[in-house]
């Protein structure tokens, strides 16, 4: 993605270097440099505070961003709105892009199919409740999977938006955290967590239960809202009992560790990077669950995304952090104010990071080197 302001900064930096080639090289530091900031909603948040937590999507030279107030929009590299689609009660959960088609899980009980170039609605399908889980696609890209706020899971044809099957079960859990798990597709099975602390595996073609495993027995909140992560023959999932679990593909627990929470784990080399509700990010040996390092945050961290050997993530009561993932050391941070619930997005060329602040402001930042003060 080309951002004109960045080009100017790079050229000026080069000219300065050439003009001072005989001077002592000054020490530099790595920073998160803001490139674009744009309010992602057309009106102020009224009444109860809404959660702005959709992960932005890089699309060509634009960034697509939703908010929990009034819809979704596309912003260009100059910070100008290219299009805006108004959706009642907004968009909290993360959308999925397939080519130039955008599938959007909305808070009004519908999933929308949009043209990513102009934001026009192509079609919609009703799920009957707020769609708070990130959408996902099957391996062949022909099927869309979603979970609504009632814990119902849907298999949807991407072309016709007809529902192939629906899975639902009665939920006896009286207290639950706002949010639902992403449905993860793997080798014709789908894996997801629900609010009573159960992890399920279903046949992706028919929606039949293959196995289920009760993980979280917390007396108050049992939610498994974090997306299951699958690598090889192992499933990694985080639960609201502040535990992270490693299971095999038949649902047997291989190890568990006393970290975990709302955000999904991620992998970096041989490390499992876990955002914990204990106000920290930890790195565990992915084979054993042994702790390698921990990093203290102000509050609840988002999912950690890897970029150029670093890890980038938000803090619900703090800044966007940049960490050395091998050592767990802070490299830099960027403070937008009001915290971050949005898991950051990394551009395809691993040059830019986009996120939405708690105040529904879209920020695009670049990792760059600057001369130390």
Would you kindly provide a written description of the structure presented here, covering whatever features stand out?
This protein is mostly beta strands. Helices cover 4% and strands 45% of the residues. The protein has one helix spanning 4-19, and strands spanning 28-39, 57-59, 62-67, 71-75, 81-86, 96-98, 101-105, 110-115, 121-126, 136-137, 143-147, 153-157, 163-167, 184-186, 189-193, 198-203, 209-214, 229-231, 234-239, 243-248, 253-257, 266-268, 271-276, 280-285, 291-296, 305-307, 310-314, 320-324, 329-334, 345-346, 352-356, 361-371. The protein has a four-stranded antiparallel sheet with strand order 1-32-31-30, with no helix packed on it. A four-stranded antiparallel sheet has the order 2-3-4-5, with no helix packed on it. It has a four-stranded antiparallel sheet with strand order 6-7-8-9, with no helix packed on it. The longest helix has 16 residues, at 4-19. The radius of gyration is 21 Å and the shape is globular. 46% of the residues are buried. The model is unreliable at 2-22 (pLDDT under 50).
């Amino acid at each position: 993605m080309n951002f004109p302001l960045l080009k100017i900064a790079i050229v000026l930096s080069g000219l300065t270097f050439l003009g001072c080639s005989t001077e002592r090289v000054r020490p530099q530091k790595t920073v998160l440099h803001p490139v674009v900031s744009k309010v992602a909603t057309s009106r102020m948040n009224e009444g109860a505070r809404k959660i702005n937590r959709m992960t932005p999507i890089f699309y060509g030279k634009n960034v697509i961003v939703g908010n929990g107030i009034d819809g979704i929009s596309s912003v260009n590299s100059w910070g100008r709105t290219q299009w805006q689609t108004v959706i009642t009660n907004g968009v909290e959960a993360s959308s999925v892009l397939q080519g130039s088609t955008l599938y959007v899980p909305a808070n009004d009980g519908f999933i929308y199919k949009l043209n990513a170039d102009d934001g026009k609605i192509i079609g919609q399908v009703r799920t009957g409740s707020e769609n708070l889980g990130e959408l996902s696609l099957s391996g062949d890209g022909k099927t869309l999977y979603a979970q609504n706020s009632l814990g119902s899971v849907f298999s949807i044809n991407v072309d016709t938006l007809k529902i192939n099957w629906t899975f639902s079960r009665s939920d006896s859990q009286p207290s639950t955290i706002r949010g639902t798990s992403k449905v993860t597709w793997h080798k014709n099975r789908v894996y997801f967590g629900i609010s009573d602390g159960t992890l399920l595996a279903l046949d992706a073609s028919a929606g039949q239960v293959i196995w289920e495993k009760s993980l979280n027995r917390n007396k108050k909140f049992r939610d498994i809202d974090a997306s299951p992560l699958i690598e090889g023959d192992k499933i990694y999932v985080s639960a609201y009992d502040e535990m992270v679990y490693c299971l095999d593909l038949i649902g047997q627990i291989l190890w568990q560790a006393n970290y975990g929470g709302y955000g999904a784990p991620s992998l970096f080399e041989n490390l499992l990077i876990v955002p914990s509700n204990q106000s920290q990010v930890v790195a565990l040996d992915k084979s054993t669950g042994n702790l390698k390092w921990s990093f203290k945050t102000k509050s609840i961290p988002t999912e950690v995304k890897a970029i150029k050997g670093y890890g980038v993530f938000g803090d619900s009561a703090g800044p966007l952090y940049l960490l050395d993932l091998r050592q767990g050391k802070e490299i830099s941070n960027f403070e937008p104010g009001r915290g971050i619930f949005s898991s950051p997005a990394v551009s395809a060329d691993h040059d830019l990071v986009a996120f939405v602040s708690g105040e529904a402001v879209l920020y695009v930042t670049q990792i760059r080197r600057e001369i130390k003060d």
